[in-house]
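SEQUENCE-TO-STRUCTURE ENTRY
===========================
Question of interest: how does this chain fold, as expressed in backbone structure tokens?
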Amino acid sequence: MKRSMLTASFLAYLLTAVPAQAGGNRPEPYEPIDAQAMIDACWDMTYDQRLGSTAATRDGIFDSIVCLEERILEQFAALFPATVLSRESAARKLEITRETYTDLYWHIYNENKGCRICPTQYYSSDLIAWSDVLERMLKDAVGQRNRYKL
């Protein structure tokens, strides 16, 4: 019984295994990437910092954003040839988009007509909004890598 299960498992593996490449080297099986684990790691590293003052919280969120942007750039490097989207170009596009997006969100929460003295709780709303975009982008990039096993 045990031997037939092993034989069946081995046959199933042979039928689904990636064909050998020239030279007899077979690539390792593809390990799917876990985008949520990367996201969680970026937030976990600043947890204590984000428990502090408003300024410390904002700095911690920004540090997590830098981490998320770095993870995205890593995914882009695997997704695109440098001739399509270089790391430098992608980094610059993220920076420009961050500056524009967070500026608009800063205005929404901290400079609207109803905000005579806005509470400091909104001082990080722009960064939180941007982090939502980054998390989605990271999940989408990882999803494409997993789909095409890149």
Notes: Residues 34-148 form one domain. The chain has five helices and no strands.
